[in-house]
Write a structure and sequence with these properties.
The chain has 228 residues and is of the alpha/beta class. The protein has a domain of 117 residues: Undecaprenyl pyrophosphate synthetase, CATH 3.40.1180. Helices cover 43% and strands 15% of the residues. It contains eight helices and six strands.
């Protein structure tokens, strides 16, 4: 792929349930296919030179409203295992530790967002999985961390941005949402302020290599203007 690629790509992998229902298969099959697609897209991102990918695996709102939460949790567990096995990637979980503790996913908290270890510096590709996540709560947590570390005199936008970047969440260059929906729904609200937006009509399990290449081509054609 010629032309610039996003350094940080954020993904809202929407449409797994609709994909399953359109085919008359159980919802769990849709989420399983979605997990497979996510790992494929991560591989394509690494090959293309993307440095960081953040994937919204489970929102706080979905935890409260989705009747198929156990199915979603199974898919997240599978996704985590596959991502960990896919390559020497720096894998992190972002979201609410308190909410995660109640989900019965004991393998996840150990990967919760943290300052990079020295060994991580050699890992060029970072994968953030947002689980039990809400963009507004993330900003509140970052502000509280700054207050605890430095006091109210350091509470400004630069300090909050530095805290989020320290957790592996630099500003996004591009946000992708699949399934034709055209909204952010609260994902990475702070980091996506300067991001380009790309809305794909395909349901997430159908987001293939052609769709991926079309997204990168669209990004490469854009003249980015970092202002109003």
């Amino acid at each position: 792929m010629s032309g610039p690629v996003p350094r940080h790509l954020a993904i809202v992998p929407d449409g797994n349930r609709r994909w399953a229902r359109a085919r008359g298969v159980p919802v769990r099959v849709g989420y399983a296919r979605g997990a497979e697609r996510t790992v494929q897209v991560l591989r394509w991102c690494e090959e293309a030179g993307v440095e960081t990918v953040s994937v919204w695996a489970l929102s706080l709102e979905n935890m409260a409203k989705r009747p198929e939460l156990p199915v979603m949790l199974d898919a997240i567990g599978t996704l985590m295992e596959r991502v960990r096995a896919a390559g020497p990637w720096d894998v992190r979980i972002v979201g609410s530790p308190e909410r995660l503790a109640a989900l019965g996913l004991p393998s996840l908290p150990g990967f919760f967002a943290r300052s990079p270890e020295p060994a991580d510096a050699a890992r060029r590709f970072t994968v953030n999985l947002a689980v039990a996540y809400d963009g507004r709560e993330e900003v509140v947590a970052a502000a509280r961390a700054v207050l605890a570390e430095s006091g109210p005199g350091r509470l400004d936008s630069a300090a909050i941005g530095d805290r989020l970047a320290r957790w592996g969440l630099p500003d996004c260059d591009l946000i992708l949402r699949a399934s034709g929906e055209q909204r952010l729904s609260g994902f990475l609200l702070w980091q996506c302020a300067p991001a380009e937006l790309y809305f794909s009509p395909e349901l997430w399990p159908d987001f293939d290599r052609g769709s991926f290449d079309a997204m990168l081509a669209s990004f490469a054609r854009r003249q980015r203007r970092f202002g109003a």
